[in-house]
Amino acid sequence: MRSCTGLCVDGITTLLAEHTGGIPATDPAHTQLRADLEHLLTTAPTQVAALEAALVHFAQRCPPGLLPSSLALLLDALLPAQHEARARRADNEAGLQLHRNPTGSGWNLHGQLDTETGELLHTLLLAQQAVDPATPPTPTPTGPPPPTPTPNTSPSCTPRTGPDP
């Protein structure tokens, strides 16, 4: 239970402090968060219940866009033996596809990135938008991307290149 307590109290308070730009250990909010987590961990009937309560407490306070990567980081700390398998699977599934729309009106981007590369790309795009205020904000992905249209190359749809008959 001691390793779970250290992970939950220290790991969660550190992550939440990072997400808010840093909170001194003497800050009342930081002290209250530590006390809340310690209370959850000592009153839970089992270690699994304690961990679940602490993660729910964390999820309620973590910015939504940072929650998946933060939970992955906590999971890696909690289950270090499985970290290598997850990292290998992420490497195997990683990749990006970028296709120009057939109409020439833009681009379709589809891909799967590991956590670090995705965060780097996200930071790069936000930095670029800060330089160019005319660029609209990047939408947060909410599901699978639309299918990429494929041009119809059947003979009946091939454009003519000569004069009309």
Structure in words:
The longest helix has 18 residues, at 2-19. The protein has 6 helices and 2 strands. Helix 1 runs antiparallel to helix 4 (67-78) and helix 4 (67-78) packs across helix 5. It has helices at 2-19, 28-43, 47-61, 67-78, 80-93, 115-131; strands at residues 95-100, 107-112. Among the domains are: 2-78, no CATH class; 93-100 and 107-131, no CATH class. It is 56% helix and 7% strand. The chain has 165 residues and is mainly alpha-helical. The chain has a two-stranded antiparallel sheet.
Please outline the helices and strands:
Blueprint: H1 2-19, H2 28-43, H3 47-61, H4 67-78, H5 80-93, E1 95-100, E2 107-112, H6 115-131
Antiparallel strand pairs: 1-2
Helix pairs in contact: 1-2, 1-3, 1-4, 2-3, 4-5
Fraction in beta strands: 5-15%
Strands, total number: 2
Principal-axes shape call: globular
Distance separating the two termini: 84 Å
Rg calc: 24 Å
Unreliable spans: 152-162
Q: How do the helices and strands follow one another from N- to C-terminus?
A: HHHHHEEH
Largest sheet at a glance?
2 strands, antiparallel
Instruction: Report the total helices.
Output: 6
Mean pLDDT: 74
Helix content: 55-70%
SSE-based structural type: mainly alpha
Q: Please state how the strands of the largest beta sheet are arranged side by side.
A: 1-2
